[in-house]
Task: structure prediction
Amino acid sequence: MASDARVENAVADVYRKLIDAWNQRDAEGMSGAVASHGIVIGFDGSQMIGRAQVATEIGRIFADHETATYVTKIREVRALSENVGLLHAVVGMIPPGGSSLMDDRTSVQTVVAVLDGDIWAAAMFQTTPAQFHGRPDLAQALTAELAQLLPAASRHR
Result:
């Protein structure tokens, strides 16, 4: 349906805004992609509720240390209704100054985006470490899959 495609595109755009803002170390940009009462759950389990708290906490993170860069692969985007969509992605992180993925930072990300007034925004953005307890082959396979998204020169170092 055309409506499903509209929702799916809007949700993917919200996700790209979140990731681009993180990679550019732009706390205001990141918080602007979150719904007014949206929830962000970080890799470490930290929780931020609402744009102001996201801007403050993400700004503190960016001020405190240089952050890794996300490499992302969207697995699925689906419309749940005319005003709600779900996105599932996998991500890896490249450390500052590095060129390859950190094995221990591969994660799964989920976004539930909603039409918040007249803009699409993340009602929920969650990052979950992809630890695959007891199944290191799955973790290695995911890291290898994401490594294929790196520039060719980075993959051969």
